[in-house]
Design goal:
Helix content is 37%, strand content 16%. The protein is α/β, with parallel strands linked by helices. The chain folds into 2 domains: 114 residues, Aspartate Aminotransferase, domain 1, CATH 3.90.1150.10; 243 residues, Type I PLP-dependent aspartate aminotransferase-like (Major domain) (Aspartate Aminotransferase, domain 2, 3-Layer(aba) Sandwich). The strands form 4 sheets. It has a 7-stranded mixed β-sheet with strand order 2-8-7-6-5-3-4, sandwiched between helices. Helix 1 packs antiparallel against helix 8, helix 3 runs parallel beside helix 5 and helix 9 runs parallel beside helix 13. The two termini are 35 Å apart. Bound molecules: pyridoxal-5'-phosphate. The site of pyridoxal-5'-phosphate has 13 residues, from helix 3. The site of pyridoxal-5'-phosphate (PLP) has 13 residues, from helix 3.
């Protein structure tokens, strides 16, 4: 069955790195919540609420299983998105208790870790180090200072480059007395393997980039969570309140996840994320091969064009390139608009990676094609055809 049957032949959606298209079972799960058991989680005793509770709990368990992490060591909290999760952690971490001396990030980061590490360093009056990643995506271990709080992506939103030495990085950071938070926004859909059994201190992600509704999550080590103060407070995380004091449910290990969940949560979206994980787990060899085939076909074409300056060294579901106005007489924004006129939905600009793309590389604005399991070979053929004509 085609789970993207709602997509017309003329709609060529190549913006999955921003938000994936949602497959029908995910849309059905969300609709099912709204039409069959619309209810508040973790508070109500009636049957609808019990069904919501069961499914929300199942999503937390599915996420840990998806990354092969133990519920004894980790818990899952829901947030708005990756940016929000990173900011919650970086704005509330108890730097003194953690013994952190330097804030570290890398050069190829999205603005969300890049900016939140700038503000964390400033607020705590700490030095901040931006490490240059190797061309293969790895982080040079020798560059990691002692007692650092490292915040880096494990998959880039420019070209899908992976933090291929992630396991060594995590070990090195821990060995030198530091902590590591992974921005997994681009990894969860197509590169989640890299996170399997990777014992980072926290992993932030966006469900909307993994075929689920708009939602975010923090997967956090229980011991690291104790170093995060709770200043963003209220609603569902509270067990008891007296005139001047309160008791938080996070103090009960079974409800530790409430630490970052102030107020009513997006229950339907959380449940539909569970459906998205089931759906991702059920992708067949043929589905994966089709995606890889489309990636390779597009990569081979882009690589072979004199005037298309491709950033990717290898095919990936996310590929970026630029055209030079001096060479062809128009820029990537104009090219993006011309593609849009043909039904091709791609991104133009700097994709929130201003520091690296604009200030380090001095590239002109770029175009990004990001593919997904909905991508058909005919989409790629049309893109190639139109680009050739242009
Ligand atoms: C690598 C990376 N990190 C963080 C983000 C921020 O995600 P969100 O806008 O969902 O918070 C993105 C979004 O594109 C991203 O690609």
């Amino acid at each position: 069955m085609n789970d993207f049957a709602y997509l017309s032949e003329n709609d060529i959606y190549l913006d999955s790195a921003c938000q994936s298209l949602r497959p029908q079972p995910v849309i059905d799960a969300l609709n099912n919540y709204y039409t069959k058991h619309n209810s508040c989680g973790e508070r109500v005793k009636y049957q609808w609420g019990r069904e919501t509770d069961e499914k929300v709990e199942a999503t937390r368990a599915k996420l840990l299983k998806y990354l092969k992490l133990s519920p004894r060591k980790y818990f899952v909290s829901f947030t708005l998105n990756t940016t929000y999760g990173l900011n919650l952690l970086l704005s509330q971490i108890n730097i003194a208790a953690a013994g952190i001396k330097t804030i570290v990030t890398s050069d190829i980061e999205h603005n969300s870790p890049f900016l939140s590490t700038i503000s964390c360093a400033k607020r705590n009056n700490l030095p901040r180090k931006v490490i240059t990643r190797n061309a293969d995506g790895s982080l040079p271990l020798a560059d990691i200072p002692k007692n650092a709080l490292v915040v880096v992506n494990c998959a880039s939103n420019i070209d899908g480059r992976l933090l291929i030495n992630i396991k060594d990085v995590v070990k090195a950071v821990h060995k030198s007395g530091g902590y590591i938070i992974i921005d997994a926004a681009q990894a969860m859909a197509h590169s989640s393997d890299i996170l399997h059994k990777t014992e980072a201190d926290a992993i932030c992600f966006s469900a909307h980039k993994m075929y689920a509704p708009s939602l975010g999550g923090i997967i956090i080590r229980r011991d690291f969570a104790k170093l995060i103060d709770v200043n963003f407070i209220g609603g569902g995380m509270v067990d008891d309140v007296d005139k001047e004091t309160f008791l938080l449910s996070k103090d009960n290990p079974e409800h530790a996840y409430t630490q970052f969940e102030s107020g009513l949560q997006a229950w339907g979206e959380i449940i539909a994320l569970g459906a998205a994980i089931d759906w991702l787990n059920s992708r067949t060899k043929a589905d994966k091969e089709n995606l890889e085939h489309c990636e390779k076909k597009l990569f081979d074409f882009l690589k072979g064009q004199k005037h298309l300056h491709l950033i990717n060294k290898t095919p990936a579901s996310t590929m970026s390139f630029y055209v030079d106005k001096k060479e062809v007489g128009f820029d990537s924004h104009t090219l993006g608009a011309a593609l849009a006129d043909e039904g091709i939905m791609a991104r133009t600009g700097y994709f929130c990676v201003h520091y690296y793309l604009d200030h380090v590389k001095h590239y002109p604005p770029l175009i990004r094609f990001s593919l997904g399991y909905h991508t058909r070979e005919s989409d790629i053929d049309k893109v190639i055809d139109i680009l050739k004509k242009i």
